[in-house]
Design goal:
alpha+beta; Neuraminidase; four-stranded antiparallel β-sheet; 3 helices
Length: about 500
């Protein structure tokens, strides 16, 4: 309105014909700038992103194969690192346009490590090549069978040096259940602090000595998000117990600078540090038929999910000191909260923290979408994979990151037992399908020519929204006015004898 008023005053003041023509052109220029400004500030109406906006394919080429892939990450050198369950790690150079593998570097073989379930890089370590950190253990899930009774085979291992020739265990002595719960995903903070997603040895806080699974009681570091500072001037990564080699509710830690950051997790497979600074983790709910739930440090209810259901999986916002509902009677000696089981349906209470959302059965790998693809529409959102149902899920967080705005559990489907997920800088999603023995990619399709944006503002031109019609009308009106002014100016000059 202010521009219209100024234009009226501008035209109503005395002026010669040539001056008037100049004023017409100035106002038309202003109108054009205003229209372009609206392009930048008017959001595209209801532009959504779904599976159809991605090209889906299988990572292949240069002789690359994978067997039982369990963990993925993008390295600081831009390569895709793929860890197989039995210990092989490969670094893949990918064609940025086709995602075809153009080169493969084998970092480790099956003979070098135990079973690998987590992989990460330390952002404070500028060594070349960038050292690779992995969790590895005998989990009961792989070909080696269950970890021997009394064994604490869980490790965090660093693979480094020229040609990745040096393998160093930086943390040892982590517990492992007889039911594929072990040290899983790992992530480094910007300051080099290491966080470890570590599984419980029980189903819902109570071990079942007669088996067949969850026969071992929880121990001091099981069922938690752990924290360590391996770059500290003095760091002892050798975790030992008193009495040694003992799984019991009374065993104590004897040595080791590894600590519980947050407790009450049953089997958190993956965790991330979001760009908002918060930590998020997936967690698997209890299985039916494998033992009751702890109601105190000495009592229990029958199997709460018998005969044919199971506790819900969770998406948790992980905060220091919180208890998330999976009992650990060992730690409950010093923290009474950890005597009592609370499932995800219970929400939060006085002394426990509920999930920010529930997830499909066996949701595991988790990643933040950090790319500016799709005009940044997905930036900051979470993607996760659901093992049992072969699904890719999409979570939109609240602006403060403390709750979930929406959770599309079927953003994409038909994956073969997906276990982990990673996001590339160009917005490509990579999904590790463990029993499919493959890595699937989902690459953003090119934005249509009509959607080329000025600060994302012109994307509306490609979606037929009311915003795009409004914008097109503005541009057509400006073009018509410029055309009319040009003709009018030419006619005026001709009448006045100007050439």
């Amino acid at each position: 309105m202010e521009i219209v008023l100024h234009s009226f005053l501008y035209f109503s003041s005395p002026a010669t014909g040539e001056a008037m023509l100049r004023r017409v052109r100035v106002v038309l220029l202003i109108a054009t700038v205003v229209a372009i400004g609206f392009v930048g500030v008017q959001p595209a109406a209801a532009v959504t992103v779904d599976e159809t906006d991605f090209t889906r394919g299988i990572v292949a080429g240069a002789g690359f194969t994978t067997a039982l892939p369990t963990a993925l990450t993008i390295g600081p050198d831009g390569r895709l690192f793929v860890a197989d369950q039995e210990g092989r790690i490969q670094a893949l150079t990918l064609d940025p346009k086709t995602k075809a593998v153009t080169a493969v570097e084998e970092i480790t073989t099956n003979a070098d490590l135990q079973e690998v379930f987590g992989i990460a890089f330390d952002p404070t370590d500028a060594s070349s090549p960038p050292p690779v950190y992995v969790t590895n253990t005998v989990s009961g899930f792989g070909s080696d069978g269950p970890a021997p009774a009394g064994a604490f085979p869980g490790k965090v291992t660093k693979i480094h040096g020229a040609g990745y020739s040096t393998i160093t265990d930086i943390i040892t002595g982590l517990s492992t259940s007889d039911s594929a719960h072990q040290a899983n995903g790992i992530v480094f903070a910007a300051d080099g602090t290491l966080y470890i997603a570590h599984g419980s040895t029980t189903n819902a806080g109570v071990n079942v000595p007669a088996g067949p699974l969850f026969t071992r009681p929880d121990v001091p570091l099981s069922g938690a998000i752990l924290v360590a500072s391996p770059n500290a001037f003095v760091f002892d990564g050798n975790v030992t117990y008193d009495p040694p080699g003992t799984y019991s509710s009374t065993v104590n830690l004897a040595t080791g600078d590894v600590f519980v950051f947050a407790s009450g997790l049953r089997n958190p497979y993956d965790l991330i540090i979001h760009s908002n600074g918060k930590i998020y983790a997936t967690d698997n709910g209890p299985n039916s038929g494998f033992g009751g739930s702890s109601t105190s440090c000495t009592t229990e209810d029958p199997d709460p999910w018998a005969p044919d259901t199971r506790g819900p999986d969770e998406l948790n916002l992980i905060e220091a000191g919180n208890y998330y509902g999976q009992p650990n009677r060992n730690r409950a000696r010093f923290d009474a909260r950890q005597c009592v089981y609370h499932n995800g349906l219970d929400g939060s209470g006085v002394d426990w923290t509920g999930p920010i959302d529930l997830l499909p059965v066996s949701s595991n790998g988790l990643a933040e979408y950090t790319s500016a693809a799709f005009g940044g529409k997905l930036a900051g959102d979470l993607f996760y994979v659901s093992f049992n149902d072969g699904l890719l899920g999409h979570v939109v967080l609240s602006p403060d990151g403390t709750s979930v705005v929406s959770n599309n559990t079927t953003f994409a489907s038909s994956f073969v037992t997906p276990l982990d997920i990673a996001v590339d800088s160009d917005g490509t999603l990579y999904i590790a399908e463990i029993f499919g023995n493959r890595i699937t990619f989902m690459q953003p399709k090119p934005v249509p020519v009509g959607g080329v944006s000025l600060d994302g503002g012109l994307r509306a031109l490609s979606d037929g929204s009311s915003g795009s019609l409004w914008l097109i009308g503005w541009l057509l009106a400006v073009a018509a006015a410029v055309f009319a002014a040009t003709l009018g100016g030419a006619a005026w000059r001709q009448r006045s004898g100007q050439r």
